[in-house]
TrEMBL record:
Keyword match Cytoplasm: yes
Official protein name in the record: S-formylglutathione hydrolase
Source species: Suricata suricatta (Meerkat)
Key words of the record: Cytoplasm, Hydrolase, Serine esterase
Gene encoding the protein: ESD
Record-level Gene Ontology MF annotations: carboxylic ester hydrolase activity; S-formylglutathione hydrolase activity
Family recorded in the similarity comment: Belongs to the esterase D family.
Length: 282
């Protein structure tokens, strides 16, 4: 599949690039960002996928999080896709910030008119890794995933729905129980319809209850002053309770004074890179 390079910038000895390609799953042109550390010049490196939150593109993480130095030091290729299909000419796709464009929620839509394009789950777990493995110096056997907010939800469900596929998972302020929060209810009813059993297949709190799997060490950072935490959008306590019940190891850190922004992410990003490097470089 043809890749078109959009940009390339030297950063901490490596290269931060952005590419565009025609996505089969999403039936549109998609962009993704990829950081190639210095080690990628001489051999295959592990791949760490980042999923961004509502309203974001591939740009937010690479310009605001400050992840490059740690990724360079640990020799990790870091991939950050866009958060939804774009420009699909679907009626209503640009009407609200929390549904449609910039708000794919990392599900495979089953409802018209969304089901033809809004297949972010398959894009992130299947199409994009195949594309990365075929075109860049990554080791397909060493892959991990993390994300923020809607993308934290995405990272958790990708790991929980695919035992053994990802070596590790982490999240910043993830939407942990979307079937019970306003964002999730809006997105899931639009993309997946009214059958709430279909919703549960993309809800980390429900997925962990039936997780069969191989060992998965989960790290979550949550800002204590996060307005969306107090608004009941994130519901981490429900996820922690389900993990505890299933004896799935989770480190949950409530960070005093921090909000939902990239200032919060930038403060703790090195901890998350280290968390993944421990498993990816083992």
């Amino acid at each position: 599949m043809a890749l078109k390079q959009i940009s390339s910038n030297k950063c901490f000895g490596g290269l931060q690039k952005v590419f565009e390609h025609d996505s089969v799953e999403l039936n549109c042109k998609m962009k993704f960002a990829i950081y190639l550390p210095p080690k990628a010049e001489t051999g295959k490196c592990p791949a760490l996928y980042w999923l961004s939150g509502l309203t974001c593109t591939e740009q937010n993480f690479i310009s605001k999080s400050g992840f490059h130095q740690a990724a360079s030091e640990h020799g990790l290729v870091v991939i950050a896709p866009d958060t939804s299909p774009r420009g699909c000419s679907i009626k209503g796709e640009d009407e609200s910030w929390d549904f449609g464009t910039g708000a794919g929620f990392y599900v495979d839509a089953t409802e018209d008119p969304w089901k033809t394009n809004y297949r972010m789950y398959s894009y992130v777990t299947e199409e994009l890794p195949k594309l990365i493995n075929a075109n860049f110096p990554v080791d397909p056997q060493r892959m991990s995933i993390f994300g923020h907010s809607m993308g934290g939800h995405g990272a958790l469900i990708c790991a929980l729905k695919n035992p053994g596929k990802y070596k590790s998972v982490s999240a910043f302020a993830p939407i942990c129980n979307p079937v019970l929060c306003p964002w999730g209810k809006k997105a899931f009813s639009g993309y997946l319809g009214t059958d709430q059993n279909k919703w549960k297949a993309y809800d980390a709190t429900h997925l962990v209850k039936s997780y069969p799997g191989s060992q998965l060490d989960i790290l979550i950072d949550q800002g204590k002053e996060d307005q969306f935490l107090s608004d009941g959008q994130l519901l981490p306590d429900n996820f922690i309770a389900a993990c505890t019940e299933k004896k799935v190891p989770v480190v949950f850190r409530l960070q005093e004074g921090y909000d939902h922004s990239y200032y919060f992410i930038a403060t703790f990003i090195t901890d998350h890179i280290r968390h993944h490097a421990k498993y990816l470089n083992a």
